[in-house]
Specification:
By secondary structure, this protein is an all-alpha fold. It has 2 domains: 35 residues; 232 residues, MetI-like fold (Orthogonal Bundle). Helix 3 crosses helix 7 and helix 5 crosses helix 7. It is found in: Cell membrane.
Length: 271
């Protein structure tokens, strides 16, 4: 018979599973059920609507660009703050983490203040026929801001643990910066890098707050998948809204599951 500690552990495990089921699994199942309430053909047709296809296309394009830019920027930022000690390093680390602590809506308002028609640079942009707010560039800037920390924060602990000995040896042997980074540093950090990329991808696909502020909610032009879901739901197109939400949830879950699989594979290979 299990002792008190054993019963306590069993209760804790059961409570944890129930919480996960109620908070995470059940809502996803309800979204899937609502999406298929009128049948799979109706849900599929809603996803083939021109505005829906435009939202999917814009989401994928913005995500790909944001992931590429923030992967490069995150690697450089992680290298700088872990391999060198300099004045202002703590400030730089705080700035890297700033998007995590700042509300995305505030981030969107900042971009609107800078690039909107009544913003600081709005008049100059309008005179030169350049549109950033309420257009794809504004959506991309908002997504870049909110997703920047993930690659850097995932890499920083591992790069800190690596030290500088291997890189210094490569430099002494004549290797340049890019060759050292590609051949010495990143191979040992490849799983952390992939994990950061997947986190960035999931965050970019599902971003709503900052994008909502700077996009203008123009169907077929500046609506990403989360924004299109809101438009459909507010327009009482329930099946279409839940079909798009189900697709978004499947993409996000696939990304998170892939990250979990890679982490498990990495730990198994390291043990």
């Amino acid at each position: 018979m299990a002792g008190p500690s054993g019963r306590g552990n069993a209760v804790l495990v059961a409570a944890t599973y129930l919480t996960v089921l109620a908070v995470l699994v059940l809502p996803v199942l309800l979204v899937m059920a609502e999406a298929l309430r009128a049948g799979l053909p109706a849900a599929w047709r809603s996803l083939l609507d021109p505005d829906a296809l435009s939202a999917i296309r814009l989401t994928l394009v913005v995500t790909l660009v944001a992931v590429a830019v923030n992967t490069a920027g995150g690697v450089m930022a992680a290298w700088l703050v872990t391999k060198y000690r300099f004045r202002g390093r703590g400030v730089l680390v705080a700035l890297i983490e700033l998007p995590i602590s700042v509300s995305p809506v505030i981030a969107g308002l900042v971009w609107l203040l800078l690039f909107g028609r009544q913003g600081w640079w709005g008049g100059w942009l309008e005179r030169h026929d350049i549109q950033i707010a309420f257009a794809t560039p504004g959506i991309l800037l908002a997504t870049l801001f909110v997703t920047f920390p993930y690659v850097a924060r995932t890499l920083m602990p591992l790069m800190e643990q690596q030290g500088r000995e291997a890189e210094e040896a490569a430099f002494l042997l004549g290797a340049g910066f890019w060759r050292t980074l590609w051949s010495v540093t990143l191979p040992d950090a490849r799983w952390a890098l992939l994990s950061g990329i997947l986190l960035t991808t999931a965050r970019a696909i599902g971003e709503f707050g900052a994008v909502s502020v700077v996009s203008g909610h123009i169907p077929g032009l500046t609506e990403t998948m989360p924004l299109h879901i809101e438009t459909l739901y507010n327009g009482y197109q329930t099946v279409a809204a839940f079909a798009m939400a189900a697709l978004l949830a499947l993409i996000a879950m696939a990304t998170v599951l892939l990250r979990s699989f890679l982490e498990h594979d990495f730990r198994k290979a390291s043990s």
